[in-house]
Amino acid sequence: MTNVFEKIIAGELPAEKVFENERIVAIKDINPAAPIHLLIIPKKSIEGIHMIREEDLPLIGECVKVAQQLADRYEISDGYRLLTNNGAKAGQTIFHLHFHLLGGRKLGVMG
Ligand code: 5GP
Predict the structure, then answer these.
(1) 108 within ligand 1 shell (Cβ under 6 A)
(2) Which residue minimizes the CA distance to atom 24 of ligand 1?
(3) Is the confidence at residue 1, as pLDDT, over 80?
(4) How far from the centroid of its chain's Cα atoms is residue 11's Cα?
(5) Structure confidence by residue, pLDDT tens digits, 27-66
(6) Angstrom distance (rounded) from CA 106 to CA 104
(7) Which atom of ligand 1 is nearest to the CA of 90?
(8) Which of 13, 25, 49, 99 can bridge 40 by disulfide, Cβ–Cβ 3.0-4.6 Å?
(9) 91 lines ligand 1 (CB under 6 A)
């Protein structure tokens, strides 16, 4: 079954893209939890961080690099959070790996 992010990657669903290359797309979250709330999404179909394999590690590293670049562009490099939820119990709602980049306000310990 195709999920929302796979539809966005395929161009079947609109999204406000802030970065894209052959391997990764980054979009604005539709329901932002902070003034800056971006989602960094590898295009490869990986369910979540627990399903990452050795061969995916360069792609994950590239996601971190994209996060750094976006943090600079959005001027939040002095304080941001990069997180991923793995599994429904952790709050994952879309089962295609993505990293939340949050910033633009003082962030609480975990929220
Ligand atoms: P999760 O709960 O899986 O960690 O994160 C999913 C995120 O995707 C949520 O923050 C939610 O607001 C966002 N989201 C869900 N549907 C859409 C959509 O259609 N477009 C965009 N841009 N974000 C979405």
Answers:
(1) no
(2) 30
(3) no
(4) 17
(5) 999 999 999 999 999 999 999 999 999 999 999 999 999 9
(6) 7
(7) 4
(8) 99
(9) yes
